[in-house]
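Good morning C.,

I know you're traveling, so I'll keep this short. The sequence:
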Amino acid sequence: MLKKIGKKLLNNWWLKLFSLVAAFLLWLVVMNIDDPEEQWTVYNIPVKLVNTDVLADEDMVYEILDKTDVVRSVTIIAPKSVKDELSSSDIIAEADFSNLTVTNTVEIRFYSLRYNDKITSITGSTEILKLNIEEKKTKRLVLEVQTTGEVADGHIINSVTPNQNRIEVSGPASVISQIAEAIVHVDVTDSTSDISTNADVKLYDADGKEIATDRLNMNITTALVKVEILDTKTVPVVYTAVGTPAEGYLFTGEITGVPERIVIAGTTENLANVNRIVVPEDLLNITGQTGNLLQSVNIAEYLPEGTILADDSFNGKILVTVHIEEEYEKTLNIAASHIQIEGVPEGYTVQLSEEAIVYTIRVKGLRADVDAIDAANLYGTIDVADFTEDKGWSEPVPGIYETDVEIVLPADITIEGRLEAYIEIIKLEEVE
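The tokens, ready to paste straight into the viewer:
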């Protein structure tokens, strides 16, 4: 039975084989006619980067050159049925950094997320990812704050404070080596009150040119900055001296300081009751001085609480001069007619008993004050009532006596010695 079946199968075997091949070819033709291959192009496919940590592990960083991380066009050949199902998002361009070459390039592999096994070919206009690879460096810098513009008149900036004062930047050594400073800028134009704002951190080279940060990693990119703005006020400085100059010298009463007025700053409340700055008198002791006292005073130490010096260029040092000059003496003549007698009790008459026309006195004081005295306007006074009391009398006793003459002089002018004159006391009853 088996022999009969085998004989039938082998009978005309070549004809049967031909029929099988023809059927297969016919199937291929039919399939090709029903689902023909087509070619199409997708554009701007980004290159997927994988295994980039192989560089990070070596403390290296990379930069993609010539925009090779985007393939401008990718051509696909596949059956029409596959094409109809695919979109550009299915097409992947991949660069595996594990395959990095000594020339710093990585081959780009193309594939589809779907139906990849049915695609005849995928090719791209760019097949190599080009890299610039450098050693990774890190730099730490002090974060500076710079203000731009000017605050409103009558105000100053007291302090500028960022919430962080240091920054750490890492990236390619060639870029890191160029960084000279990290700065945040705050605009204070016409401001009259405190400012609190977030400002971008910018990096600059030694020439002040801004450095792009797209290849750098920064631990902070912004900083919160607070700017304290204070009111200002111009006030005089007041001085007082203590002590007495050496004998023969006088304090003129003049104390000068340079500058005479200072500008202080503070809150509106702190400045409201400040109208002057007083220097403690014990700082200007003129005891024993024979010439001007020169004293440097740090006025910043005597500012009212809550105020500061407003001018950054002024260090607070004021040169104070207490003016001392040598005592000046001068002889003056007082006409006898200018000596007046007063306090004469009823029943008495009192008169000068000598025939002097003028009386001479010697005065001393500051030169300007002494020179200002006009002898023609000097008057002396003899008070009989005081003279009687000094003598211990209950009433004047007739006779000729020597007594003091009181001279009215400007303040700070003294008479050297005493001015004395003789008077004659006469009781009127005796005259009759």
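Safe travels,
E.
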